[in-house]
Amino acid sequence: MQNHEGANVAPELLAAIKRTVAEAVQNALEARLLNADDEPMAWAEDKLLTRAEAERFTRALGQRVARGTFEQYASKGDGPPIEYFGAKPLYRVRDLRDWLSKRTKRANSATERRRLAAIEANA
User: Which candidate, 95, 56, 63, places its Cα nearest to that of 79?
Assistant: First the structure.
């Protein structure tokens, strides 16, 4: 086999290089997957998040709020509490959880009430 300059490369050497690269990639992926900073549900309650991270966090909770929506809420004075670092808006994990829980409500239909009553009766 030839390398990019046209010189011959032993197949064994090429296979060893491929194995080394594959192992390095695998190690990097595992390190990234095991890094708690990459898992929104593992973030500390007092961690400050950018709008992009806040979007990611709300998505992890199953209640996606887009980055642009955070911008709209901020311009109207609605939304979760904001802290600023200079001009950069930041959101605390704890504040996002509280805000999302206040926005979430139970269904109020008669069917839903019967279903919930049946679940509670069987508990």
Answer: 95
